[in-house]
Amino acid sequence: MTESIGTLLILGAGGDLSKRLLLPGVGQLLASGRGSSFRLIGVGQEPMTDQQWRERVAASFTAGGSSGPSVDRVREESVYLQADVTDVDELKRILEACTGTPAIYFALPPTVTIAACTALEQVDLPEGTVLALEKPFGADLRTAESLNRQLLKLVPENQVHRVDHFLGKSTVINLLGLRFANRIFEQVWNRDNIERIEIIFDEQLALEGRAGYYDGAGALVDMIQSHLLLVMALVAMEPPSSVDAEDLRGAMAQVLRATDVVDVGASRRGQYTEGKLGERSIPSYTDEPGVDPKSRTETLAEMTVEVKNWRWAGVPILLRSGKALADLKKEVVVRFRDVPHLPRGLTGRQGPVELRIALSPDEIELDLMMNGAGDPFVLDRATLAATFGAGDLGPYGEVLHGILSADPTLSVRADAVEECWRIVAPVLEAWAKDAVPLDAYAAGTNGPAQWARA
Predict the structure, then answer these.
(1) Which phi and psi angles does 428 have, rounded to 5°?
(2) Confidence of residue 1 (pLDDT cuts 50, 70, 90)
(3) What is the pairing mode between strands 438-442 and 268-273?
(4) Which of 70, 187, 262, 355 lies in disulfide reach of 30, CB 3.0 to 4.6 Å?
(5) pLDDT at residue 452 tops 60
């Protein structure tokens, strides 16, 4: 266990991530009363006075709906340092400005994060220092392994927080209660009763100015490798003995180790062309500012995996995510097998029964086949619906709480990161060789016309 965090040090504080997500999360954590007392220091290469920085912090806190004495105190005492975080002497100067044990948050591009971690090897870090890194963790399996080795030269694994804000979503956390606190689900949560699972995150948003990162990543790395495989691990894992960090993360890693792509050639990728999203005209992806006009980066990715263990062998798990699509669809869909036999005289069964768990908003639906309202021997479909209780913190507030309280439960463990890269590696290799076609789809549609939709 680390010492109590005295300073939250944000490297890359002038960037969009800090402004839109990280600082609002800090404000929410402070306003909730769940955050302990700490100092906030922003670090960036661009010139900024302490007052300008505090105004930026105040705007982000307000945007996140945060107010109160703790919020005001942290904002008023926050300072900004202009520095090159890849320079050893500059890093020493930054750490000297910290009070107590620092938590260093790398809100930086991956290459800069790696360079900064390399430079930190020549710096005497204070006892208990926590490192928090944004995805992607490396660019492939080899670089992820290299980064993990570098981090262990700096601090122990339990002081490394690989941030995946998806694990901070209240809906994703609620998967634990849904699965393990309800006998009706846990008893049927296996290959004998479940036909297939789909984990889908289709967005109506287009690139939205993220070309600098996205064009080098694409939908497969940005969403499936980084997020959806971890959601799958929560859906498919064996019951952990507790929700402590090691038990929970160990159960997730065990699932990932058993997971492989079913058929690389059956994976699919697409890239949006010009179209309309509501009233907005969307240019072709290759015409977006900052995108290489010859880019082969996919904006829609789909692949099917199988967890090769006693519980799930033979059950296809489809993972899909895309941008600039007509329908907003963010959900886990569990399709149950048909009953083996219906009594003679009951008719009208309408397709498979599904459990749908929305990743946003926090909702759940379960289909039931029931006697019809008219002819009672003709079955009708009914749907039970419920809303999950929302957490008092947003995703970044939750992960920051873990970082500042030295609780790695919602951070991604090193072996899980490497397994996620291993799983997608054959697909990335095939796509790099153009062994799988890059299909086109107009922005504002539901994907390429030739893709059959379930």
Answers:
(1) -60, -40
(2) very low
(3) parallel
(4) 70
(5) yes
For residue 65, give the nearest of 33, 34, 25 by alpha carbon: 25
pTM over cut 0.85: yes
For Cα atoms 332, 177, 399, give the angle at the middle one, nearest 5 degrees. 80
**CB-based contact 442:272 (threshold 8 Å):** yes
pLDDT, greater one: 294 or 64: 294
CATH for 5-134 is 3.40.50.720
pLDDT tens for 210-222 read: 888 899 999 999 9
For the annotated catalytic residues, the residue numbers are 227
3-state secondary structure the chain: CCCCEEEEEEECCCCHHHHHHHHHHHHHHHHHCCCCCCEEEEEECCCCCHHHHHHHHHHHHHHCCCCCHHHHHHHHHCEEEECCCCCHHHHHHHHHCCCCEEEEEECCCHHHHHHHHHHHCCCCCCCCCEEEEECCCCCCHHHHHHHHHHHHHHCCHHHEEEECHHHHCHHHHHHHHHHHCCHHHHCCCCCCCEEEEEEEEECCCCCCCCHHHHCCCHHHHHHHHHHHHHHHHHHHCCCCCCCCHHHHHHHHHHHHHCEEECCHHHCEEEEEECEEECCEEECCHHHCCCCCCCCCCCCEEEEEEEECCCCCCCCCEEEEEECCECCCEEEEEEEECCCCCCCCCCECCCCCCEEEEECCCCEEEEEEEEECCCCCCEEEEEEEEEECCCCCCCHHHHHHHHHHCCCHHHECCHHHHHHHHHHHHHHHHHHHCCCCCEEEEECCECCCCCCCCC
Burial of 92: CB neighbours in 10 Å, binned 0-12, 13-18, 19+: middle
- Lowest mean pLDDT: which of 278-292, 325-339, 395-409? 395-409
**β 354-358/329-336 pair status:** antiparallel
User: pLDDT for 369-400, tens place per residue?
Assistant: 888 777 778 888 888 898 876 667 788 888 89
Examine domains 5-134 and 167-442 and report if their fold is the same. Answer: no
Q: Where are the domains of the chain?
A: 5-134, 167-442
The predicted-structure confidence for 237-295, as pLDDT tens digits, reads as follows: 999 999 888 999 999 999 999 999 999 999 999 999 999 998 899 999 999 999 999 99
Query: Among 33-37, 45-49, 173-177, where is mean pLDDT lowest?
Result: 33-37
Fold of the 167-442 domain: Dihydrodipicolinate Reductase; domain 2 (3.30.360)
